[in-house]
Design brief:
By secondary structure, this protein is α+β, with helices and mostly antiparallel strands. The protein has 5 helices and 5 strands. The strands form 2 sheets. A 3-stranded antiparallel sheet has the order 1-2-3, with no helix packed on it. Strands 4-5 form a two-stranded antiparallel ribbon. A hairpin with a 2-residue loop joins strand 2 and strand 3. The protein is globular, with a radius of gyration of 19 Å.
Length: 165
């Protein structure tokens, strides 16, 4: 089934019942080492760790690297979906994402320093037979609809509970 067909079928299904558009994603994280975390997301699992310079054993990417990977991969997927939706021919998409982070905030050395990214840069390279204007149209659609980019750009309500305290 093509992405365009999938998009059309999904549009029809959620038009009849908007509740079908609501999804829940979850990750279960267990600290298994000094900084090593076992992550399970449905049928998938992976390791997260810090580099040795931050006390870890570097058996996996660290959380901020996964955040950048999530942004880059979501961008690439969203390019593919929106190219199909807009009828834009797209041969390849490559996304490089960089983020600036000052560890003084994370480590509590300076509470005036933000613990997260202070800047993020996304560099996208696309190739295909379309003219530059069509790819610019595609980029604008992706920027308006990429779920992970939305997480980076907009505040999201977060609640936390603590058990066992």
């Amino acid at each position: 089934m093509s992405l365009a067909t999938l998009i059309d079928q999904t549009r029809a299904a959620v038009a009849d019942d908007p509740a079908k558009a609501q999804l829940l994603f979850a990750a279960h994280n267990t600290l298994v080492g000094v900084t090593e975390v076992d992550v399970r997301t449905g049928a998938h699992s992976f390791r997260v760790d810090e580099p040795e310079a931050l006390g870890g054993t570097d058996v996996g990417a660290n959380p901020v690297q996964y955040a950048l990977a999530s942004l880059g991969s979501c961008q690439a997927i969203t390019y593919r979906f929106w190219a199909a939706k807009l009828g834009i021919d797209l041969d390849t998409v490559t996304v490089r994402v960089e983020g600036d982070l000052d560890v003084r905030g994370f480590l509590g050395f300076d509470d005036s320093v933000r613990p997260g990214f202070t800047a993020v840069r996304i560099d996208v390279a696309v190739a295909g037979p379309e003219d530059a204007e069509r790819y610019q149209e595609l980029a604008e659609a992706v920027d308006a609809h990429c779920p992970v980019l939305d997480l980076f750009r907009n505040e999201v309500p977060v609640s936390r509970s603590l058990a066992g305290a």
